[in-house]
């Protein structure tokens, strides 16, 4: 339980209402009840506030209160207090973590785990049953390895990292501090490298590079990140992956980028900082994407994307162009009919001119 004045101080917000009002929990705008705090992430949801029973609401700075024409539902509920903040969604995350802090565990190493020779386990690590830690691997302080995690030879895992069940980390991979890897991810499997021989058979090209995952990366369930052919595949600090994404060999992903579900990045692509690849976006090999660029869902990126660009479609083009194309598509059948009529008229005119000659 927290007082509103304490929550306002935590999120550095402006409090409008009773500073002593007690808050017992946090909930969505539509499910919040008396004693709970909620948030409005966008102005379009303000109309829903009239039906909200929360005791307090996080809103963006500059929003007039109460909104014009708003009447609260009554029924014995208090009008909610307000905390104005720069980013309501961020404030919501801060308060959520306050009410539901991450679970802490005392360190332990299960007798049913396999720990290879010369492996080093830092203080307070949690190693669950059926974990495999290969020869010479290193696991940093406070890191948690859940059941059936596989760490190959020479893997290095930093401090306070969480690796969930069934994750496979191949030999030589380096993982930083405060990384989260969800179930089923595969880090460091061979890149897709083959060469066709004269008899038509595909010969495997040895993949002898490695993968580097920097600090504060989060990798969703069943993501696959391939080792480099030579050198490194690198995921820079703060990158976040949704589930089921694929990163090919020798890719470099810049800091704080977002890779959404089913996105695919082909070999040797380079992404700048703060790039967003939306769901099912795909890049062919050797593409360069500049800082702050966005590729919308199902974009097929076949050319380099400059910094700050906003592309969509397949092949991907500037989003404004793609929107005009999409608006035109339903008109194509009628346009084709019109063209055919015009062609017929032109043909008739040409025949008339010939007869007149």
Automatic annotation (TrEMBL):
Q: Where are the transmembrane segments?
A: none
Instruction: Tell me what reaction this enzyme catalyses.
Output: a UDP-3-O-[(3R)-3-hydroxyacyl]-alpha-D-glucosamine + a (3R)-hydroxyacyl-[ACP] = a UDP-2-N,3-O-bis[(3R)-3-hydroxyacyl]-alpha-D-glucosamine + holo-[ACP] + H(+)
Task: Alphabetically list the UniProt keywords.
Answer: Acyltransferase, Lipid A biosynthesis, Lipid biosynthesis, Lipid metabolism, Repeat, Transferase
Q: Where is the UDP-3-O-[3-hydroxymyristoyl] glucosamine N-acyltransferase non-repeat region domain positioned along the sequence? A: 21-98
Any one GO CC term of the record: membrane
Q: What is its EC number?
A: 2.3.1.191
The family database entries (InterPro entries) matched by this protein are listed as: Hexapep, Hexapep_transf_CS, LpxD, Trimer_LpxA-like_sf, UDP_GlcNAc_AcTrfase_non-rep
Give the pathway.
Bacterial outer membrane biogenesis; LPS lipid A biosynthesis
Q: Which domain of life is it from?
A: Bacteria
Where does the signal peptide begin and end? none
User: Which Pfam families does the UniProt entry name for this protein?
Assistant: Hexapep, LpxD
User: Does the UniProt entry include the keyword Lipid biosynthesis?
Assistant: yes
Q: What class of enzyme is it?
A: transferase
Gene Ontology BP term (one): lipid A biosynthetic process
What residues make up the catalytic site?
249 (proton acceptor)
List, in alphabetical order, the Gene Ontology terms for molecular function in this entry.
Answer: N-acyltransferase activity; UDP-3-O-[(3R)-3-hydroxyacyl]-glucosamine N-acyltransferase activity
CDD domains per the record? Answer: LbH_LpxD (cd03352)
Q: Please give the subunit comment from the record.
A: Homotrimer.
Which NCBIfam families would you find in this protein's record? Answer: lipid_A_lpxD, PRK00892.1
Family stated for the protein in its record: Belongs to the transferase hexapeptide repeat family. LpxD subfamily.
| Function description | Catalyzes the N-acylation of UDP-3-O-acylglucosamine using 3-hydroxyacyl-ACP as the acyl donor. Is involved in the biosynthesis of lipid A, a phosphorylated glycolipid that anchors the lipopolysaccharide to the outer membrane of the cell.
Name of the protein described by the UniProt record: UDP-3-O-acylglucosamine N-acyltransferase
Q: Which gene encodes it?
A: lpxD
